[in-house]
Structure formats: C-alpha cells, structure tokens
TrEMBL record:
Keywords: Cell membrane, Membrane, Transmembrane, Transmembrane helix. Residues 18-426 form the Major facilitator superfamily (MFS) profile domain. The keyword Amino-acid biosynthesis does not apply. Belongs to the major facilitator superfamily. FHS transporter (TC 2.A.1.7) family. It is a multi-pass membrane protein. Gene3D superfamilies: MFS general substrate transporter like domains (1.20.1250.20). The chain crosses the membrane at residues 15-34, 54-76, 85-102, 108-125, 199-218, 250-268, 288-307, 316-334, 340-361, 368-390, 402-419. Intake of glucose and galactose. Pfam families: MFS_1. This is Sugar MFS transporter. It is found in: Cell inner membrane. NCBIfam families: gluP (TIGR01272).
Length: 426
C-alpha cells in the first residue's frame, strides 16, 4: 500500500525520494520538450516547409496540453499519481515510435501526430508533478522546489539541442546548398535520408521511457492527499464558491501562464531561425537554443538561493516580467549578435515565472486545487498558439519585428505579479 502524504505536511523525511523521482521526470520533460527547437529547422528542410508551417511543430506538441489537461485530471483521480505517471510515460513512448513511420515516409502530418501523442503523455505527467511539487512542503517555499525541478528540466533542455542537433543537422549546410541543384529524384533521396536520422534517437528515447516507467512502478512514491490543513484554512472561502472560475487569482494566473509559456517557447524555439536571419549557417544556428536554456538554469539557481528567504514569489515575478521587457526591447532595437544574445537573455528573465505563478494561482483554492491545476496545465497551450503567430508575423514582416508579439505578454505578467494575484473576487 502506498503512503499517503498530506499536502503541506511539515514532516520532511519523506520528501527526498519523491523529489528525486520527480526530478528525473522533469529532466525527461526538458530533454523531450526542447527537442522541438531542433525539429523546427530540421523538419523545415526535410519536409520542405515555409516558416509558419514549420512552427506547427510547437502547435501540435503544446496544443495537446489544452486538449488533455482536464482528461488528465480525471485520469489521475481514477489512477492516483503513481499509476498516472506510468500511463503518461507509456503514452509518450507510443508517440516516439510514431516517428519511425513518419521518417520512413517523410510525412509531415505523421510527425505532427507523433508530437501530439508525446505531448498528451506529458500532459498527464505535468498535471501530476506540478501540484505534487507545490503541496509536498510549505507553500512559502514552493517556488524554490519548482526551481530545483526547473534546473533538471532546463539542463536537459540545454543538452537536447546540442546532442540531437549534432545528429539531425550534420552536414545540413552542404545539403541545403546541394538540393537547389539536384533533380527531383535525387533531391527526394537526399531528403529521405535526412528524415530517417530521427529513427535511432527516437527509438532509444522510447526504450528509455519504458525503463523510467518501470522505475516509477517499483518505487515507493507516496500519494498526496488534497485534504489538508491548507484546504481547511480555505474552507471559509471555498464553501461560498460554486465554481473554480470564481477565483480571480486562478483565472488571471491561467492567462499569465498561457502568455508565459508562449514567450518561453518563442525564446527557445525561434532563436535558431533568428540566427539564420542574421547570417548564421544552419548547423551553427541549431546550437543557439542552448543559450536561453542555459540562462534559465542560472535563473533557477538564483531562485533556489533567494526564495523565500530574500525574495518573495510575487517579487520574483515582478523582476522577471520587467527583465523580460528589457531584454525583448533590446533585441528589437539592436542588430546581429547583440540582438541574438539579448533574445537569449529572455531565458534568464523567464526562469522564475513558472515557479512563481503556480503557487500564486493555486493559493487558497482548497477543494478546487486539483481542478485548478488541470486548468493551469491547459495554459501550456500558449506554446502552441504564440509561436505559430510569431511564424506568421515572420513571413509577413521579418524575424526581428515579429518579436513585438512578446511585449504585451510580459506587460500582462507584470500586472499579475503586481495586482492580479491579489484579486479575491470579480
């Protein structure tokens, strides 16, 4: 029988193993998620796409969170956290295996189907793991714990474009120049070979997912009960409310999270194309996503050291939003390498937004906490919508001017940090 740990329990002896297991899962999240930053230029070449079409990679992946978030909450109610995590890992494995027929046929729509299935599995894992981290300890230090998970996530995300980029994008500069002079048959043969480079890496990742599912199955991962002292303290508030949407801090937090994930994905997944805009070769540009992700690691370390002893979660959110505005405006009004480095700086600015929004949005939801968590996970769909808009703006304007899209996003996040999370009623 699994141990049931009350949320906000002050006993810490049970924290180490659950947090270690969740840390491994967050490493997995990061490695798989930020593979998209390499898949975008890779599939753009292999499947002969324009810019906006290539950003369907992020759309297919992140829209699955919106579609699957509420069903994921229902699944977790039926299965519990542990079995739900195992199910999510196995669903992801199926999505990875879909890449094999996609590569063999070089069919973009099948690649997108595989990405959607992988994202669906991740939605189950995210729905379980984020509130798990939030409630497994004092709410005041929730952002600190999420920051630790963020380091695992973004270290993996930093490795992903470097490792997989060296496989997928090998000799693509030469190939990109050659295909312009090849016959249709020769070009198709070259692009078929390029598309099939994903088969071995994705087969290995599928096997790793099965191994991780077995690790979770045999682990002593405790279940977390939502019936805790936090819920008791919120009883007076929640008993008078009939809908989760009656909590402004949650609804506004959902919007802030939606916008945040959008700008985070834009910073990480468009920087390779932005490097090409300023003259980088494709093989060189494919390594640029490591810079914003490295900045996020630095930001997470700062969060661990500063929150909550020296910095409250909402103040960290204020600093992050203001920093995002400064870096974005700088990238818009500079040129070349400086503009690219300022764009990469968004990674540092973004680091503490996710860990700060979650506890602020879930604060005092009481019995609505599980549903509120599912709604917040739906906000990850911002990574589907905003990069697609960026791609369309790039085709109409250019890769630099399209970044004006992130300015209103950071302004709303700043509003949520200053006032929105304090709003108690409509």
């Amino acid at each position: 029988m699994q141990t049931v740990v009350p949320a906000q329990s002050k006993t810490k002896q049970n924290y180490a193993l659950p947090l270690a297991i969740i840390g491994v899962l967050f490493f997995l999240f990061g490695f798989i998620t930020w593979t998209n930053s390499v898949l975008i230029p890779y599939l753009k070449l292999a499947c002969e796409l324009n810019t906006s079409e290539s950003y369907l990679v992020t759309f297919a992946f992140y829209i699955s969170y919106f579609v699957m978030a509420l069903p994921s909450g229902w699944v977790l109610q039926k299965t519990g956290f542990k079995k739900g995590m195992i199910l999510g890992l196995l669903v992801m494995c199926i999505g990875m295996l879909v890449f094999i027929p996609a590569a063999l046929t070089r069919t973009y729509s099948v690649f997108l189907l595989g990405l959607f299935i992988v994202g669906s599995g991740l939605a189950v894992l995210q729905t379980a793991s984020n509130p798990y981290i939030t409630v497994l300890g004092p709410i005041e230090s929730a952002a600190q714990r999420i920051s630790i998970m963020g380091i695992c996530n973004k270290l993996a995300g930093t490795l992903s474009p470097l490792l997989l980029g060296s496989i997928f994008m090998k000799d693509t500069d030469k190939l990109e120049a050659q295909i312009k002079t090849l016959s249709e048959a020769a070009k198709a043969a070259q692009l078929d070979e390029l598309a099939q480079r994903v088969i071995v890496p994705y087969s290995i990742m599928a096997a790793a997912l099965v191994g991780l599912a077995m690790m979770v199955y045999f682990s002593h991962l405790p279940e977390v009960s939502q019936s805790d002292d936090t819920e008791d303290k919120a009883t007076e508030t929640t008993s008078t409310r009939s809908s989760v949407l009656s909590f402004p801090n949650l609804v506004l937090g959902f919007i802030a999270l939606f916008l945040y994930v959008g700008v985070e994905v834009i910073a990480g997944d468009t920087i390779a194309g932005y490097g090409q805009f300023w003259g980088y070769k494709l093989s060189e540009a494919s390594k640029l996503p490591a810079y914003p992700l490295g900045g996020m690691v630095i930001g997470y370390i700062a969060g661990i050291l500063l929150i909550p002893k020296y910095l409250t979660q909402n103040k960290a959110l204020v600093i992050s939003a203001v920093s995002g505005l400064i870096f974005a405006i700088g990238a818009l009004f500079t040129r070349g390498d400086l503009s690219i480095y300022l764009l990469a700086g968004l990674g540092l600015a973004n680091a503490l937004i996710w860990p700060a929004i979650w506890p602020l949005a879930l604060n005092k939801l009481g019995s609505f906490t599980a549903l509120g968590s599912s709604i917040l996970v739906m906000g990850i769909a911002g990574g589907a919508i905003l990069p697609l808009l960026y791609g369309q703006l790039t085709d109409k304007l250019n890769a630099q001017q399209a970044y004006w899209l992130v300015i209103p996003c950071y302004l709303f996040i700043l509003y949520y940090a200053l006032a929105g999370h304090k709003k108690k009623s409509w």
